[in-house]
Amino acid sequence: MEEAPMLFIPGPTYVPEEVARAQARPMIGHRSREFTALFERLIPRLQAIFRTRGRVFFVAASGTGLWEAAIRNLVRRKVLCLINGAFGERWHQVALANGKEAVALSVAWGQAIRPEQVVEALSAHPDAEAITVVHNETSTGVMNPLAEIATAVRQAFPDVLILVDAVSSLGGAPLETDAWGLDFVLTSSQKCLALPPGLAFCAVSERAMEKAKEVPHRGYYFDLLTMARYADRGETPATPAISLLFAADRQFDHILKEGLEARWERHRRMAERVQAWASERFALFAEDGHRSWTLTCVSNTRGIDISALNEFLRRRGKVISSGYGPLKGKTFRIAHMGEIQLHHIEALLTDIDEWLAAK
């Protein structure tokens, strides 16, 4: 069997062998004592990773499913969607698809959303019940100033819920659910948490849970109140992805043993190294001061053939990503998230430099 390449892409990310092997444990029933014990091990560690004392849930879905959960549970009519990349746009589309009045606050790709822009938009739409914001846009390499946005919203519009996509940042950059006053924070298993795809996790504030009681037609699969009722007895409403939860059980131990602050710092150092390299050889797409800790979007100022570069890298056991959507070919992206270490980054950059030198 051909050896899989090391993934420097926005996801899925590299899964350590011992974590992957954990999925092969013998199956258990999801209404058994064994599953309840697993559930009760996972929840406090999830709370630690989300930095919350509130409710946390997991579902068998991608993060997209929890976009829908946030909208269906927490918005009766109107939501303000913050957009500065492909995934902000997509969450906006999810809100529209669920019949909500979804107002878009859009800024240019590569730029961060400013707190004052959010306050101005909410002032123009005082009946908005919530905002949606993507903390870390992997389409552009921009990390939005989430703490500052949340503070501004809390001060100017204290009743507005703050709904956050942390799919590519939770576990790789500072995020404080409780301290920043966030109401719904979602992530996926296959990014900074370095798990196989197929699980999504969220943290939900108490006031968000109360808001859900007022919202009709929350749906069935992603109803937060149903999830809470089952969670109170150590269960999930539907059959969970038990094998993936075995892997999470193993990986959460590893994450917390490393320590969240140490994990954040490792990601910061990798980002700093890649961005210094990219600045010398190309240019950075994301604006200065708001660059991601988990992914670097490089402007293809030299007009290189990114597909040809990736063919070369695959022969070296590595792979990166081209630009996303309208940025395809104009940028390329190097992810430095999950269990990637600085020595992996150094090996990748050495290989790219060798390819560039031959051009």
UniProtKB/TrEMBL annotation:
Domain Aminotransferase class V, residue spans: 27-323
GO molecular function: alanine-glyoxylate transaminase activity; L-serine-pyruvate transaminase activity
InterPro entries tied to this protein: Aminotrans_V_dom, Aminotrans_V_PyrdxlP_BS, PyrdxlP-dep_Trfase, PyrdxlP-dep_Trfase_major, PyrdxlP-dep_Trfase_small, SP_NH2Trfase/AEP_transaminase
PROSITE patterns listed in its UniProt record: AA_TRANSFER_CLASS_5
Alphabetical UniProt keywords: Aminotransferase, Pyridoxal phosphate, Transferase
Family, per entry: Belongs to the class-V pyridoxal-phosphate-dependent aminotransferase family.
Cofactor: pyridoxal 5'-phosphate
A biological-process GO annotation: glycine biosynthetic process, by transamination of glyoxylate
Protein's recorded name: Aspartate aminotransferase
